[in-house]
Amino acid sequence: MEPAEQQRFLAAVDGLADLKGGALSALNVRVDATVLDKAPTIPSGIFR
To answer: Domain spans of the chain?
Structure first.
């Protein structure tokens, strides 16, 4: 995860008490697509 993304996420968590309902997506961590493409796949489980 990029340092800028870490800081963005931590800032959102730090301001959680003041976070408005429409800003809840700020709590989702954003991962670069190239990193996800390289991630190992996992077998299907009970929820897939």
So the answer is: 3-38
